[in-house]
Design brief:
CATH class of the largest domain: Alpha Beta
Number of helices: 9
Keywords: DNA-binding, Transcription, Transcription regulation
CATH architecture of the largest domain: 3-Layer(aba) Sandwich
InterPro entries: LysR_HTH_N, LysR_subst-bd, WH-like_DNA-bd_sf, WH_DNA-bd_sf
Family: Belongs to the LysR transcriptional regulatory family.
Number of strands: 12
Protein name: Molybdate transport repressor ModE-like protein
Strand content: 15-25%
Helix content: 25-40%
Mean pLDDT: 89
Largest sheet: 8 strands, mixed
Oligomer: single chain
Low-confidence stretches: 300-310
CATH superfamily of the largest domain: Periplasmic binding protein-like II
GO cellular component, one term: protein-DNA complex
């Protein structure tokens, strides 16, 4: 079995560029680093370093091994944290994964609710779009986006709860020629430069792109990024237009307006997958109940035709 510590040291050597520099970074002696690398070479049966002048150079095998070890070491680090928590008797955590607008609009009340019930609880919140969650705890609550007309997704070991179905809206600069319209068709946006807030093609981005294609065009992007707040600022400066869920435009910058978009009218479904855990069932149920309450309060019913958004 490979030694995770030696894999971590290999990555440190490659990152530092030399055994001596890695030894300084890790507070080891160069001899200790060399011994670990020799042992790892024996464990793997690979040539990890070759002589080059007065020094050594990593082989392609060493680089490939280090790359492949990254996710394993992240998972191992997560396991070590779990063991440390269990050993100290402080294993009180609630792990939540969600998309950015849910983290901003819903999660603060969830954290306050569950910590009121368990004051020593640590709530860990991470984004599941676009990253895959490696290196974190297995989520207790996994909040996701689905196409409203798509198949329901169910995860093993989790109970699915529907939180909201919300409409997508067009977002434009306040001085845009189309800003005075009460609603816009997707085709009205065909000739406009777009600001894409989902460069990694997460579920919401796929929903928007599918709607554009249904209207007969593919957006022409002036900018692409993975932050809806930054995207709103780009729209405000006149870089382009975009389409977002209502939850993401609950608070708009002053120079931006949101309008209903039709033909097609597009909705997304927001669901939470709650982990089935008998020991912490009450805590998870409290969190789900608060999510339901927040979803009812925060998802706006309609966009104001005269103000700067919902």
């Amino acid at each position: 079995m490979l030694n995770p510590q030696r894999l971590a040291i290999l990555r440190a050597v490659l990152a530092a560029g030399s055994i001596n520099q890695a030894a300084r970074n890790l507070s080891y002696s160069p001899a200790t680093i060399s011994q670990h690398m020799t042992a790892l070479a024996k464990e793997t049966g690979l040539v990890l370093f070759e002589k080059q002048g007065r020094g050594i150079s990593p082989t392609d095998a060493a680089r490939h091994l280090a790359d492949q070890a990254q996710s394993l070491l992240a998972d191992f680090g997560r396991l070590e944290r779990v063991v440390a928590d269990l050993r100290s008797g402080q294993a009180q955590h609630l792990a939540i994964t969600c998309f950015a607008s849910a983290a901003e609009r819903w999660i603060p009340e969830v954290v306050r609710t569950v910590r009121r019930h368990r004051p020593n609880l640590t709530v860990e919140i991470s984004l599941n779009e676009p990253v895959d969650g490696r290196g974190r705890r297995r989520p207790d609550l996994d909040i996701r986006t689905e196409p409203a007309d798509g198949a329901e997704v169910h995860l093993d070991g989790y109970q699915r709860h529907e939180l909201a179905v919300e409409e997508l809206v067009a977002v434009l600069p306040a001085d845009h020629p189309l800003a005075d319209a009460r609603e816009l068709a997707f085709r009205d946006l065909e000739g406009e430069p777009w600001v894409d807030h989902d460069i990694y093609d997460s579920p919401i981005g796929q929903i928007i792109l599918t709607a554009c294609r249904a209207a007969g065009f593919t957006p022409r992007y002036a900018a692409r990024l993975d932050d809806h707040r930054a995207a709103l600022r780009l729209v405000e400066t006149g870089i382009g237009v975009t389409v977002m869920p209502r939850l993401a435009v609950a608070e708009l910058p002053g120079g931006v307006v949101a309008r209903p978009v039709v033909r097609p009218t597009v909705f997304r479904r927001i669901v939470v997958h709650a982990r089935q855990d008998r020991r912490r069932g009450d805590l998870i149920a409290r969190a789900v109940a608060q999510l339901r309450d927040s979803a009812r309060k925060v998802v706006p019913a309609e966009t104001s035709p005269t103000g700067n958004g919902p």
